[in-house]
Amino acid sequence: MDTTIDALKNLYVACGGSEETVEDLVLIPDMINALATLITGGALNPLPVVDSEDNGKVLKVVEGEWAVGTDAVG
Q1: Is the whole model's pTM more than 0.70, yes or no?
Q2: CB 55 within 8 A of CB 62
Q3: CA–CA separation, 25 and 6 (whole Å)
Q4: Neighbours of 13 (CB within 10 A)
Q5: Angle separating helix axes 4-14 and 28-40, nearest 10 degrees
Q6: Does residue 54 share a domain with residue 34?
């Protein structure tokens, strides 16, 4: 059975974080803060950030990542 800190570390990795980044954390508040930093850094949003200047552009995959482009080709 995992401890709470182990479960939070598992969640951190599942959200795209590196296990090595949090391996030395032992306090639950520190682990929650690490998760918050990961999430606010965009870890759960694989789509690019866009604004009104991107109107008319398309979303496409470039080298395995989502990207904003001007057309659907390459």
Answers
A1: no
A2: no
A3: 10
A4: 15
A5: 10
A6: no
Q: Of 17, 41, 12, 44, which Cα lies nearest the Cα of 28?
A: 12
Residues of the domain holding 30 = 4-40
Indicate if 35 and 53 belong to the same structural domain: no
Q: Based on the domain organization, do 29 and 14 belong to the same domain? A: yes
What is the tally of structural domains in the chain? 2
Residue-wise pLDDT tens digits, 4-63: 999 999 999 999 899 999 999 999 999 999 999 998 887 787 788 888 998 989 988 888
- For the record, the structure tokens of 21 come out as 């980044």
Q: Find where tokens 């401890």 sit.
A: 3
